[in-house]
Amino acid sequence: MTEGGKKKILVLNGPNLNMLGTREPEIYGSETLADIEKNMTARAEILGYIIDFRQTNSEGKLIDWIQQTTIQQDSEKYSAILLNAGAFTHTSVAILDALQTVNIPIIELHLSNIFKREKFRHHSYISPAANGVICGFGGNSYILALEAAHHILNKV
Ligand code: DQA
Question: Which CATH number does the domain housing residue 57 bear?
Answer without folding.
Answer: 3.40.50.9100
